[in-house]
Amino acid sequence: MLDPTLTRETFKKIESLCLLLEDEVAVIESGDMGKFEEILSAKETLLADISRMAAPLLDVDGIDQAEQLPGEIALIYDKLAEARTLHLRNARIVDRKIESTKAALEILKSGSTKDAEATYDRMGQIRAGKGRGGHQSTV
Fold first, then answer.
1. What crossing angle do the helices spanning 4-30 and 71-110 adopt, rounded to 10°?
2. What b/e readout covers 8-30, taking b as 16+ CB neighbours within 10 angstroms?
3. Paired sense of beta strands 136-138 and 128-130, if any
4. Cα–Cα distance measured from residue 26 to residue 56, given in angstroms and rounded to the nearest whole number
């Protein structure tokens, strides 16, 4: 027999996790590492609670394949699938940011100082040169 209170509380925890994962994507994109660390800590706590609470609910070994899962359990499975999708999306975003940073570092490490200066000159237009009439201009 399912404990309705445990089922309801487990579903609420998973909903909280989904909301946290939605907030996480904005924090990842903003690059706020302090806030990102806070979210990771909160996520760990929620995941531990969900694992502990959901274990007895999701033990479906005794259910015959012909039988349907109880509606409340099916909702929990669906919400867990949503949380997993959100988590994977966030992981892909983090992976892309890491790869982008690695690529930028590799470019900076592999190029000569002169090439790096030229790159920054073009990007920031900070190199000064003599224009017509002896005036300095930026490139």
1. 20
2. eebbebbebbbebbeebeebbee
3. antiparallel
4. 34
Note the pLDDT tens digit of each residue in 3-41. 788 888 999 999 999 999 999 999 998 989 999 999 999
Angle at 68 (CA atoms; ends 63, 70), nearest 5 degrees: 85
The residues, any chain, with a CB within 8 Å of residue 125's CB and separated by 6 or more, are 138, 139
Q: What is the DSSP-derived secondary structure letter of residue 70? A: P
Question: pLDDT tens for residues 88-97?
Answer: 999 999 999 8
Q: How far apart are CA 89 and CA 93, in angstroms?
A: 6
Q: What is the dihedral of CA 116, 118, 121, 123, to 10 degrees?
A: -70
pTM of the model: 0.67
C-alpha torsion angle, residues 80, 84, 85, 91 (rounded to 10):
160
Burial class of 113 by CB neighbour count within 10 A (0 to 12, 13 to 18, 19+) = exposed
